[in-house]
Design brief:
This protein is mainly α and 479 residues long. The chain has 22 helices and two strands. A two-stranded antiparallel sheet has the order 1-2.
Length: 479
């Protein structure tokens, strides 16, 4: 399959439209853009450094951050594990061969390779902590979903009684993760248990396999909204995402994939790049409805869904999408679970615990340092290019000439995810642990890496992989 490999460089940052520039001017602009990318990455490093230094001062002074190694929810624990060789080999192979393979493989083969590569990366990172601590026991701790499977023997009765156990002090109050999420999250593991896939090992495998499929959803979405060339460019960065440190093994990786497939199906329906767009629209709606019953904060993914519709310049699939999305709350409400009541009780529970102690003034910016570590410095540089490309893309979508470039369209999709992330940050309901709980938003920042110049792509991939490997080998990041 023939693909384009040249990066447009006729405007600042190489992401805009306009007549071809003279070679010397084009070279100067590319050089200035490259320096700006490095400045953006350096700013990310400074943000993380400040969060570490200030965080340790605050934590050592009064312990109010409730994090042993701020800004991450982690503790100092240098170690090696059986996943160490596999993680190093995976990183080296993706850095060395990922970009050319992504450019040359047939599209379906690229999707299969990306999914396999993502699973290998996440599994190997989890196995750095060993099979039992890093995989099999990860979802069986006192905070996790598998600890309450036996309380869902009668699912309808448990749903009717669910909100009575959210607040601390109530008899039989739920562990942290169950109380902090709608029941769809726990029901996933209940149903796995019912079909014979019970226990921490099966739950972990499910989260990694399904969670890694979010890479496919992101690639498909970028392809239909911004073109195959940019989708291929972002593939190695999606595979080698630093968020793998927390995706293996976490239910949040599964949440991210469900949300991502909702976006992908809506994008396919809106662009009519699928055989049955009506089915895709309903399916996307069902997945978005399910997303909202996996995590209260993921309603903010509506920003990315809206961006997909704007880029497709149509509202045609909206009625069918909403039909699917409303089906899920109708079923849960009829079963006796009230989402809004549960959310307000969760806010009370949140401030009963660490959320009521952790200072907003620190976490409102330190959360972004966590996001920088989980998305990687390449995504930070890509966000800078997205900000440069966005104004021209907005003007083009409003009808002004010239038409929006693929880079501009991708920039708007990325910035929509960034807007959702910032809304979550400002809400005050995400103080700490954002390296894990923001995975559904962070996934959509990674396509910004497609805007980076091809000459330094391997260096940017290494800049994503090396910090992730260091974090996983030097810190224990479990609950």
């Amino acid at each position: 399959m023939k693909t384009e490999n040249a990066t447009p460089t006729n405007t600042v940052g190489g992401t805009g439209n306009g007549p071809p520039a003279p070679p010397d001017r084009d070279h100067d602009r590319a050089r200035r853009a490259g320096r700006a990318d490095l400045v953006a990455a350096a700013a990310g490093v400074l943000l993380v450094t400040a969060a570490v230094v200030v965080g340790h001062v605050i934590q050592n002074r009064d312990g109010s951050l409730r994090a042993q190694w701020p800004p991450l929810l982690a503790s100092w624990d240098p170690h090696l594990g059986p996943g160490t060789p596999a993680a190093l080999i995976t990183a080296v192979l993706v850095v060395a061969y990922g970009p050319p393979l992504a450019a040359r493989l047939p599209w379906r083969a690229l999707l299969a390779a990306a999914w396999a590569g993502s699973m290998a990366w996440v599994f190997s990172m989890a196995l750095i902590d060993g099979w039992h601590r890093g995989v099999a026991k990860r979802l069986t701790t006192k905070h996790e979903y598998l600890r309450v499977i036996d309380r869902f023997e009668d699912i309808p009765a448990t749903l009717r009684d669910f909100t009575n156990h959210i607040v601390i002090g109530e008899p039989g109050n739920w562990p942290a993760h169950i109380a902090g999420h709608p029941p769809g999250a726990t029901l996933t593991f209940v149903w796995l248990d019912r079909i014979g896939l019970g226990g921490g090992a099966w739950a972990a495998v499910f989260c990694v396999v399904v969670g890694s499929s979010g890479v496919l959803a992101a690639l498909i979405t970028v392809r239909v909204l911004a073109g195959e060339r940019l989708a291929r460019r972002t593939a190695p960065f999606l595979v080698l995402a630093p968020a793998a440190v927390w995706a293996g093994v976490s239910a949040d990786g599964y949440f991210a994939a469900v949300a991502a497939w909702s976006v992908a199906l809506l994008a396919l329906a809106a662009t009519r790049r699928v055989r049955f767009p009506a089915v895709a629209a309903v399916g996307g709606g069902l997945l978005f409805g399910w997303t909202c019953y996996l995590s209260y904060g993921l309603g903010l993914m509506a920003a990315v869904l809206l961006a997909a519709l704007v880029l497709a310049r149509t509202a045609r699939p909206v009625p069918l999408f909403l039909l699917g999305a409303l089906a899920v709350p109708v079923v849960f409400t009829l079963a006796g679970f009230n989402w809004w009541t549960a959310y307000h009780l969760l806010v009370e529970r949140y401030y009963q615990g660490a959320g009521g102690v952790r200072p907003y003034g620190y976490w409102v910016w330190a959360n972004l340092a966590c996001a920088t570590l989980a998305a990687g410095l390449a995504a930070v540089a890509g966000l800078r290019r997205s900000a440069v490309a966005a104004p021209g893309a907005v003007r083009a979508l409003r009808g002004g000439p010239p038409a929006a470039s693929p880079e501009g369209r991708l920039a708007l999709l990325v910035l929509a995810a960034m807007a959702a992330l910032l809304a979550a940050d400002l809400s005050g309901m995400s103080k700490a642990e954002t390296e894990r709980i923001w995975q559904p938003f962070l996934l959509w920042l990674l396509p910004a890496t497609a805007l980076l110049p091809r000459r330094g792509v391997r260096w940017w991939l290494a800049a994503s992989a090396v910090p992730a490997l260091l974090i996983n080998h030097l810190l224990w990041t479990g609950w």
